[in-house]
Design brief:
This protein is an alpha/beta fold and 481 residues long. The protein contains 15 helices and 21 strands. The strands form five sheets. A seven-stranded mixed beta sheet has the order 15-16-17-14-13-18-19, sandwiched between helices. It has a six-stranded mixed beta sheet with strand order 10-9-8-11-12-20, sandwiched between helices. Strands 1-5-4 form a three-stranded mixed beta sheet, covered by helices on one side. α2 runs antiparallel to α4 and α9 crosses α10. Bound molecules: nicotinamide-adenine-dinucleotide.
Length: 481
């Protein structure tokens, strides 16, 4: 009898990108890449160690001696090449994000288009930012800070890499990059784009590895001047603490528990679909998700009714299907985390309006959870205070606008906020009183020139536009007698 030979379609990744070439990993640890829709192993990646990381840092340091002196025009030219290279591979970037990470295809495509465009936004911002100012006998120049360590999470890895690299390049910094190790296949396609952009050797170096190995080496290495990090509050705090030993400049983009205020005069036909989209975007694994819906008591029953009907338009399932709104969680760990919070919400006395514990029927193979909306939530409950990072929305009722503002600001986070109302003047008034790095009125609006980042535990510093570039610059004054 002939033995059945099953073709192995898993991808094997064994290299890092250092000094413009792919080099075999010095680190030997191998990690499986698991597809979240069916828990199949789709790849294996050999993770970097401290030695790989030090080689990447050394390459970035060598490249900085020339790139640090580049002109605006030279940087702009590189940004345009990066834009073209990424714009040409939107389909591939989208497909690999859907497969490895599991976010709905429509969301992934929008993110990857945004990623390609952010290089042009950085170019525009670069030309708007004066790098030299002088008065009297004083001249101030904004100098690139040096080698930048860029560290990203798994929930939109390629987008964050593009946003950070764009600002670093615009500032004249070279980079050593540690993508999320859970995004290794996505990083391969990302690197193919970087290669196509034909950058100077050593400008962009990428080492795939664990946070406590590669990330920790980047944070403690004295040849790295700056860390731009997106990820959890706990790791952000450790980077700030450990980076102090070498006086690292840090930009930290951390978590959120964003309020979404529905004002008394809100049009629910518009606001409920928008609010569910804001809560469930990226399957709820979004730092900017509006996960606390603040509703006037007078409109509460209408809101509940509208949510019950509208949630049917947000199906959970196969992320390759363009109709799917919510895909699986990224890992077993993330699945367990979301389940723990749903259980906690029930234990603390919140009422499940839709969803609940367990997997949706027919989706038992993957890390799928039920999109869940809680009502009767008090703002001091765990589900209203902690970032769940899954498709779980808490509806909180309020008596008057002052109370809505107080509840909105009663959080340790301050990344994003949302206000919905028919009278835009009134919505602006409310927005002006919210403690958040960004407040969107009547919808999910983005502007790549506007600063992105948070108050309080949501982080330190800002990305995007001139604000993002300034974070990679150091002012230097020359004073003549
Ligand atoms: P994480 O903090 O665990 O990991 C983020 C990155 O840091 C990964 O690359 C990881 O390997 C690395 N890392 C881990 N330990 C490290 C260490 N000791 N030193 C250096 N690097 C280390 O976060 P995650 O689980 O990948 O992502 C989810 C979190 O990211 C959520 O809390 C979410 O709110 C946050 N997030 C924030 C934003 C934002 O812009 N504010 C955007 C997306 C996600």
């Amino acid at each position: 009898m002939k033995a059945l030979i099953k073709k192995d379609t898993t991808k094997t990744l064994t290299t890092h990108y250092i000094d413009g070439v792919f080099v075999e990993s010095h680190g030997r640890e191998v990690m499986d890449i698991i597809r979240p829709t069916d828990r199949q192993i789709i790849g294996r990646v050999t993770l970097a160690d401290e030695e790989d990381t030090r080689r990447a840092i050394a390459a970035a340091k060598r490249a900085f001696t020339s790139f640090g002196c580049s002109t605006k025009e030279e940087r702009a030219e590189i940004l345009r090449r990066l834009h073209e290279a990424f714009a040409a591979r939107i389909d591939d970037l989208t497909d690999v994000m859907v497969e490895e990470y599991g976010a709905p295809a429509v969301f992934c495509r929008a993110m990857m288009e945004s990623a390609a465009n952010i290089f042009l936004s950085a170019e525009k911002a670069l030309y708007e930012l004066p790098l030299t100012r002088s008065w009297g006998k004083t001249t101030v120049t904004l100098e690139p800070v040096g080698v930048a360590g860029l560290i990203t999470p798994w929930n939109a890895n390629s987008f964050f890499l593009c946003a950070k690299l764009a600002s670093a390049v615009a500032a004249g910094c070279t980079a050593v990059i540690k993508p999320s190790e859970l995004s290794s296949l996505q990083t391969q396609v990302w690197l193919a784009c970087v290669q196509a952009a034909n950058l100077p050797n050593g400008l962009c170096n990428v080492v795939i590895g664990r946070g406590d190995v590669v990330g920790a080496e980047i944070v403690r290495n004295p040849d790295v001047a700056k860390i731009s990090f997106t990820g959890s509050v706990a790791v952000g705090k450790s980077i700030m603490r450990d980076g102090a030993a070498t006086m690292k400049r840090v930009t930290l983009e951390l978590g959120g528990k964003s309020p979404n205020i529905l004002l008394e005069d809100v049009d629910l036909d518009k606001a409920i679909p928008t609010s569910l989209a804001i809560a469930l975007m990226n399957s709820g694994q979004a730092c900017v998700a509006g996960t606390r819906l603040l509703v006037p008591k007078t409109r509460l029953s209408a809101v509940k009714e509208a949510i019950r009907e509208t949630i049917l338009n947000f199906p959970v399932g196969d992320p390759t299907n363009p109709k799917t709104a919510v895909g699986p969680m990224v890992t077993q760990k993330q699945y367990d985390r979301v389940q723990t919070y749903i259980r906690k919400g029930i234990e603390e006395g919140a009422e499940v309006l839709v969803g609940g514990e367990g997997r949706p029927r027919g989706l038992e193979a993957g890390y799928f959870v039920k999109p869940t909306v809680f009502v009767n939530v008090k703002n001091d409950m765990t589900i209203a205070q902690e970032e769940i990072f899954g498709p779980v929305l808490s509806v909180i009722a309020y008596d008057n606008e002052d109370e809505a503002i107080r509840i909105a600001n009663d959080t340790s986070f301050g990344l994003h906020a949302y206000v919905n109302g028919t009278d835009v003047g009134r919505a602006r008034q409310v927005a002006s009183q919210l403690l958040a790095g960004r407040v969107a009125i009547n919808g999910l609006v983005d502007d790549q020139q506007a600063p992105f980042g948070g108050f309080k535990n949501s982080g330190v510093g800002r990305e995007f536009g001139t604000y993002g570039i300034e974070a990679f610059l150091e002012p230097k004054a020359i004073l003549e007698s």
